[in-house]
Design goal:
Elements: E1 3-14, H1 16-26, E2 33-40, E3 43-50, H2 53-59, E4 66-75, E5 90-91, E6 97-105, H3 108-117, H4 127-139, H5 145-155, E7 158-166, E8 172-177, E9 182-186, E10 189-193, E11 205-208, E12 213-217, E13 222-226, E14 232-233, E15 238-239, H6 255-261, H7 263-275, H8 278-289, E16 293-297, H9 299-316, E17 321-324, H10 325-332, E18 341-346, H11 352-363, E19 367-372, H12 378-382, E20 385-388, H13 401-417, H14 428-444, H15 447-450, E21 455-460, H16 465-479, E22 482-487, E23 504-508, H17 514-525, E24 530-536, H18 539-544, E25 547-551, H19 556-562, H20 564-577
Parallel strand pairs: 16-17, 16-18, 18-19, 19-20, 21-22, 21-23, 23-24, 24-25
Antiparallel strand pairs: 1-4, 1-10, 2-3, 2-4, 5-6, 6-7, 7-8, 8-12, 9-10, 9-11, 11-15, 12-13, 13-14
Helix pairs in contact: 3-4, 4-5, 7-13, 7-14, 9-13, 9-16, 10-11, 14-20, 16-20
This protein binds 5-amino-5-deoxy-1-O-phosphono-D-mannitol.
Length: 595
């Protein structure tokens, strides 16, 4: 989802390399267009277009841009197609202000009409431009910058953050409403960004903004104001100690592959954390007394919720409702009471669908807990207690290590709630390591054949049903093929008609469900289809499957988690074979801060 970065220095200098590097560090959020603007004295230099950072930087020579202030933006299209004119930053009508936003201005269409009726020059269909005109509207009426932003805030509906500056000034201004915004304070400069990765290489001294706050940046200081009444807010900067090593590819061709390989390490760190976390008992105590328990998330995080609900039923005798966040609001909200408990799960901790559901649930009095990877994210701040996923930065848009750590967190909670041996989970990191090493060559051998198909199925049963859904999502996300995840027993109720010679069907087999999976395999193979099975070694599966990708032998809970790893690897290798960049699949964004 869009990302913004702005920097203020003392005097005009070559800002191009800083802006391009900041843009590169925001790419993990997903984008289709890139732009940069620099401001010096009475000049604004604006260069932007649809495309990847390095392409646009080379085409428009962004590296050479100079200025006393600079803004860069990566855009993920919602209002207006990806194009040069819709790219950000945007100018105001007479070209003496420039700015860019992240988020969604939901009344963009109405605002554009108002601005045009008021005689402003509207050049694009993009809602980022509306942020600039909304400020221009009040600057032109004689209001000061802070007051103009405050008034613009009342006009702009939706969730967003934007940064803006004008000629003949030495400052940048930024506001946060719903989208992330962090300020960095360095030696001789200040900066502001949607997220930490673009700030930390420059400075570790940061201030996190809250919703409804405006920041003014000079080269040597910043000032925080409340949107509500314009009052000054005092907030001490914090020093970030997190390591940035994770944002380098570390010898891997892509972040996705690196992050797949990081799973054993971050799983070990997570288990160590969970054993020492006071929040675990707080959450379990509430769950024990709850009337209903919901696990709520979207996309991959929802699949972790599904896996969690299987573990809770199987290992803690506790029924849990896993539900997609918007459906929670649409379906369950009327039935929610203060006796209910929800765990809201989100890698980013900023997914709008999840935060919306959380807001409604809190208003209904439900006890709400969080599980998120991004420290300082909204989800981590507004829930009663939260569990960090301990994965470090996950840059690649496809979630890999955050999924496995979400699933391990649920397995840990279920194991503790069921008074089982949590120490047994300590075997997981080694098993994961072995799984990656052992299955990597096995899946690579399948890539050429699988690559011929644009329609596939991924089937699981019981404990491996969420694994099958996750395998299908990952495959779709990075290969752009259609891959449908399904309960294996449902296949014969319709989709079986799609099977033709060589048609690939993935089966994820848990050790307790082999006989049932063998039936499913035969329904496919006897019609000429190819049944590719991911499971522990089993004679019965070996005898019936077309291909058997074997994971180490353990138990049903571990197998359902381990089988995700070869599915991630297969998706990755097919995407690469197709010439796609698995880190940044087209049309997708890492952090979905829109409805
Ligand atoms: O940040 P979140 O976990 O809330 O994101 C939810 C989904 O958008 C996300 O899991 C998405 O499905 C992944 N990119 C899939 O790999």
């Amino acid at each position: 989802m869009c990302g913004i970065f702005g920097i203020v220095t003392e005097k005009e200098q070559n800002l191009g390399p800083i802006l391009v590097d900041a843009a590169r560090r925001l790419t993990y959020r997903g984008y289709d267009s890139v732009g940069a603007a620099t401001i010096s004295g009475d000049k604004i230099d604006l260069r932007k277009d649809a495309g990847r950072v390095d392409d646009v930087a080379a085409r428009y020579n962004l590296q050479e841009m100079t200025g006393q202030r600079g803004i860069t933006q990566l855009r993920w299209a919602t209002f207006g197609e990806p194009s040069q004119v819709n790219s950000q930053p945007h100018l105001d009508s007479d070209g003496d202000m420039v700015g860019a936003h992240n988020g969604n201005v939901v009344n963009n269409v109405e605002l554009r009409e108002q601005f045009m009726a008021e005689g402003m020059t509207v050049r694009s269909h993009n809602d980022g431009e509306s942020c600039i005109h909304a400020v221009e509207r009040y600057i032109d009426k004689g209001f000061g910058f802070i007051d103009s932003i405050r008034k613009a805030y009342d006009d702009l509906q939706g969730d967003y953050a934007f940064v803006i500056g004008r000629i003949d000034d030495d400052k940048l201004y930024a506001i946060k409403k719903g989208s992330g915004l962090v300020v960095g304070i360095g030696e001789g400069f200040t900066c502001v960004s949607s997220d930490l990765p673009s700030i930390l290489p420059l400075t570790r001294k940061v201030i996190r903004l809250e919703d409804g706050e405006i920041i003014t940046l000079w080269h040597d200081r910043v000032e925080l104001h409340s949107v509500k009444d314009g009052s000054l807010i005092e907030r001490e900067p914090e020093i970030i100690t997190e390591e940035m090593g994770a944002v380098q590819k570390g010898g891997f061709a892509h972040f996705m592959l690196k992050e797949i390989h990081e799973q054993p390490k971050v799983a070990a760190e997570l288990l160590h954390f969970l054993e020492n976390s006071a929040s675990v008992q707080v959450i379990l105590d509430k769950i024990k007394k709850a009337r209903h328990v919901y696990f709520i998330g979207c996309g991959t995080s929802y699949h972790a919720c599904m896996a969690g609900s299987v573990y809770f039923a199987k290992y803690a005798n506790t029924a849990v409702i896993p539900v997609l966040a918007p459906q929670f609001t649409a379906q369950y909200l009327p039935a929610v009471t203060p006796e209910d408990v929800g765990i809201f799960v989100s890698q980013s901790g900023e997914t709008k669908d999840v935060l919306n559901a959380l807001q409604y649930a809190q208003a209904a009095g439900m006890t709400c807990f969080g599980m998120a990877n991004v420290i300082g994210s909204t989800l981590s701040r507004v829930t009663e207690a939260w569990l960090p996923l301990c994965c470090g930065y996950e840059i690649s848009v496809p979630a890999t290590k955050t999924l496995t750590n979400q699933v391990i967190t649920f397995l840990y909670l279920a194991t503790r709630l069921g008074r089982r041996d949590v120490k047994a989970l300590d075997q997981l990191p080694v098993l994961m390591e072995e799984t990656i090493a052992h299955t990597d060559p096995q899946v690579q051998a399948l890539v050429e054949d699988i690559n011929q198909w644009n329609d596939l199925y991924s089937l699981g049963y019981g404990i491996t049903y969420p694994t099958a859904l996750e395998g299908a999502l990952k495959f779709k996300e990075v290969t752009y093929a259609h891959c449908e995840g399904m309960l294996s027993t449902e296949f014969k109720h319709g989709p079986l008609s799609a099977v033709s010679k060589g048609f690939p069907v993935f089966f994820i087999a848990g050790p307790e469900d082999v006989p049932l999976i063998v039936s499913g395999i035969n329904e496919v193979t006897c019609r000429g289809g190819r049944a590719i099975v991911f499971s522990e070694y089993d004679e019965r599966l070996k005898a019936n499957a077309s291909d058997l990708v074997t994971i180490p032998t353990s138990n049903a809970a571990f197998a359902s988690l381990l089988a995700v790893l070869p599915l991630q690897l297969l998706s990755y290798y097919v995407a690469v074979a197709r010439g796609f960049d698995p880190d940044f699949p087209r049309n997708l964004s890492k952090t979905l801060t829109v409805d």
